[in-house]
Amino acid sequence: EKQRELQQILEALPPGVSLVDAVGRQVWFNPALDAFWGGARPLGPERYREHVGWRPGVSTRVREDEWPVVRALRGEVVKGERLDLQTMDGTRKAVIVSAVPLRDEVGTITGALAVQEDITERRALEERQRLLATVFDGLNEGACVLAMDGHVLYANRRLAEVAGIEPERVLGLHPRELAGVSEAAARFPAMLQTTLDTGRFAGRLSHKRPVDGRTVPLDVVLSHVRGSDGGCDLIFAVVADATRDVQREQHLRRAERLASIGTLVAGVAHELNNPLQAILSFTQLLRLGATRPE
Q1: What is the pLDDT of residue 256?
Q2: pTM for this structure?
């Protein structure tokens, strides 16, 4: 009865499970393993060479004596070994395999149990996450992902540099912790509400860098990222040091003021020129008159 219950449990498990006897013949496997291989068939030790597999990052194939279940039959306990396998239809999949020897009451190995978890989708997700992290870290601007309550879940290295915050403080940081340092502390609730209402917030904030006490303007853009398939909503933020932009704007305004003053001076000079010309003309006539006695 207990054996039947155990078999029912193994058959219901999501990972693939197989049993081999002492000489390596496959004597049982669950439906998950059958589905993974696209039609598993019992294998004996002489047919392990038919399996095609690689270790991640290695081009040479796994030898028939290197398979986890074969090593388990030699007494080795294999835990969480990553492999790339080629299934019966030629599809390449990523798995984590564990295998343990089965022993009788006197310690003799009578077989082995192997458990195989398909991590193909998980590894693809990890690859996308690594690619995203590489892209994030290559940005010239600070970038981070916020939870809906405002806590930083992920940030690139540039964010710490722009905000003047120690890198170890960034993860888990909440804007309210910057009270007295950054406008973001007081304005974040309104910024978040605008982001939720319109999908985006863009503005310029004054920020005092904790590392050096220098006050800098920061351009901040928040975007609302809606979760798919029941995932959580997130806020994506880009933060850029606007010091140079402010300096350029000040220079432009200064140039515009100088141009306006120049225009005003030119106008005043023109208005003064007319009466000055008349005065000069009368002065010349008076001088001419002074040289004539009549």
Answers
A1: 65
A2: 0.56
